[in-house]
Specification:
Helix content: 10-25%
Strand content: 25-35%
Number of helices: 8
Structural class: alpha/beta
Radius of gyration: 23 Å
Largest sheet: 9 strands, mixed
Oligomer: single chain
Length: about 425
């Protein structure tokens, strides 16, 4: 029988609704990042860099692009006869058909997969964080403490701790209490949603709690294990970690890649980030172009001015176009004379000639105040912005728009245009 020391279960089924129109047609882990990657590349690369050669990827919402990207795992050296990467989607079972209803429920529905690998330990990961972590070191910490569960956590400013699940520990690192998004936090150690379980402990907890609606690790499984006296420890992580679950944090983490001294470095040989790479021609920057402090993807052609931006592959930025502080994803076209300021433009979008994005002053969103709450312009994939229009800040556009959608040629700050069939 196959026996693995530790396997990883990567939760990649979330919709990522706080990314608005960026995730209307694609799961959050499949959203582009850093010009050539997708968000899921980071935990997958962490696995192979940590010596973990067996990864189950649990998908649910809009899985097609994610499944196509992962394939059989070749870019991450996860195309293995024993182990490798396996896509795990919800499926009809005897007597019922169930979606994954919570993070732990998704693992419960795949107990047979885990049992078939007979692991000693199971690593639970989210598919939507940007970071580099050696899970092997975390496993050694788990073993040294003879832990049943080890939870990764990182220190955050105490004034921000109320946004997270907070861990309280004793002097040995053993967790004595939890607080879920507390108003008055007792600690600044924020849970990262990364857990190592000794498999028999996790299996018993899942089986005991299998009927709990929306079975969740933070809400149900870990409190259950803690209450019965299991050894639950905190592994403190002090490296770069970013939850890119909001539009601003997604934009900000991309912008951090192009800092003069980036706090998150994509260019380190000892900890490479792997991704599926298409065979593309090189980038082209014309003699008249101006490019400063940017990441530029393969097959991109630049004839205008680009500053402080992350540009994906196969993008065209035409003559006299100007792009500042923006993320432009694969296949987008910025037409001649267009002005783009602090925008996120998704794949295969066309910005028309002399259009201006990011004009005017900030205004509160008229669409969704929780999602759109910064001065960014967010454009969903396959959208068209007509020529000569002006789009304000904190706006959302999705679909093929026409001049008639812009009264007097304007979309004011805080406004939105979501075409029929393009709802989030």
């Amino acid at each position: 029988m196959i026996k693995k020391e530790m396997i990883a279960m990567l939760l990649a089924g979330g919709q990522g609704s706080r990314l608005g129109v960026l995730t209307s047609k694609v799961a959050k882990p499949a959203v582009a990042f850093g010009g050539k990657y997708r968000i899921i590349d980071f935990p997958l690369s962490n696995c192979i860099n940590s010596g973990i050669d067996t990864v189950g990827v649990l998908t649910q919402y809009q899985p097609l692009r994610l499944n196509t990207h992962i394939g059989i795992g070749i870019p991450w050296d996860l195309d293995r006869n024993h182990g490798g990467v396996t896509i795990l989607s919800p499926y009809e079972q005897t007597g019922k058909s169930d979606w994954f209803t919570g993070t732990a429920n998704a693992i419960y529905q795949n107990i047979n997969y885990i049992d078939g690998l007979n692991p000693e330990y199971v690593l639970i990961l989210g598919g939507d964080h940007i970071y580099k972590m050696d899970y092997e070191i975390m496993l050694e910490y788990h073993k040294a403490n003879q832990a049943d569960i080890t939870m990764a956590a990182m220190p955050v400013p105490i004034e921000e701790a109320s946004r997270f699940g907070v861990l309280i520990t004793d002097e040995t690192g053993r967790i004595t209490d939890f607080q879920e998004k507390p108003k008055v936090p007792k600690s600044n150690l924020a849970s990262m949603g990364i857990y190592i379980f000794t498999w028999p402990v996790l299996r018993e907890a899942l089986m005991t709690n299998k009927e709990v609606p929306g079975l969740d690790f933070g809400m149900h499984v870990i409190p259950y294990c803690h209450s019965r006296g299991d050894r639950v420890f905190c592994y403190e992580y002090n490296g770069y970690w970013k939850d890119v679950g909001t539009l601003y944090s997604y934009w900000e983490s991309n912008m951090e890649l192009i800092d003069l001294v980036p706090i998150f470095n994509l260019y380190e040989d000892y900890w490479k980030i792997y991704t599926k790479s298409d065979t593309l021609p090189p980038q082209y920057i014309s003699a008249d172009a101006q490019v400063e402090r940017c990441i530029i993807g393969d097959a991109t052609e630049i004839y205008g001015k680009v500053t402080g931006s992350v540009i994906g592959s196969s993008v065209t930025i035409e003559k006299d176009a100007v792009v500042y502080d923006s993320i432009i994803m694969e296949g987008a076209v910025i037409k001649a004379g267009a002005r783009v300021y602090k925008a996120i433009i998704a794949e295969n979008t066309v910005v028309g000639e002399n259009a201006t994005l990011g004009w005017g002053d900030y205004a509160e969103s008229q669409y969704n105040k929780k999602v759109y709450c910064s001065d960014l312009v967010t454009i969903g994939e396959n959208s068209v912005i007509p020529a000569n229009v002006m789009v304000g800040k904190n706006t959302a556009i999705s679909g093929v728009t026409v001049p008639e959608d812009y009264p007097n040629g304007y979309l004011p700050s805080g406004g939105y245009i979501i075409k029929a069939g393009e709802k989030e």
